[in-house]
Design the sequence.
């Protein structure tokens, strides 16, 4: 028994990791950290861009609304001015018509019975009426009827003027 027994050598793996595996793990961890940082930066940039687009859209909408309001105000002012002009024209036309009617009534039926004063005031043109016209002019019924019909025409002209102005305004808003 003197022989020596030679036991085979077994390589028992150690508990430590091979240096190459450690290097790969470190590189992978660094890559993962850098990807997270890059992803976070991209995410923040995207959020900033979306916020900027929303601010821009809100600003555009506000300016469009402001411009539309200015246009509507200008239209309203123009409509008001047109209504005032139409009212002034209608009022002037009503005054002229009333003056014509009053002059015609005064010529046809003078209050004191003399046609000479009216004829001289109207340019010197003399009208000669028969006895029937003078008798009718001196009666109270003919003068009252002429005045009453003149007032009716004035009130009808006023009503027509207001309706025309209202119709114009309504037509502009359609």
Sequence:
């Amino acid at each position: 028994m003197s022989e020596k027994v030679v036991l085979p050598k077994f390589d028992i793996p150690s508990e430590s990791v091979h240096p190459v595996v450690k290097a790969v793990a470190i590189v992978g961890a660094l890559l993962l950290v850098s990807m997270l940082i890059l992803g976070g930066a991209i995410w923040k940039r995207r959020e900033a861009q979306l916020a900027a687009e929303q601010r821009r859209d809100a600003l555009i909408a506000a300016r469009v609304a402001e411009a539309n309001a200015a246009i509507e105000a200008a239209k309203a002012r123009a409509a008001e001015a047109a209504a005032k002009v139409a009212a002034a024209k209608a009022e002037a036309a009503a005054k002229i018509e009333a003056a014509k009617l009053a002059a015609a009534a005064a010529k046809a039926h003078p209050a004191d019975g003399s046609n000479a004063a009216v004829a001289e005031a109207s340019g010197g043109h003399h009208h000669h009426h028969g006895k029937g016209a003078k008798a009718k002019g001196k009666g109270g019924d003919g003068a009252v009827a002429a005045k009453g019909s003149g007032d009716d025409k004035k009130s009808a002209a006023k009503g027509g003027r207001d309706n025309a102005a209202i119709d114009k305004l309504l037509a502009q808003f359609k």
Remarks:
- DSSP finds four helices and no strands in the chain.
- Confidence is low (pLDDT under 50) at residues 116-122, 131-160.
- The two ends are 126 Å apart (CA to CA).
- Residues 19-173 form one domain.
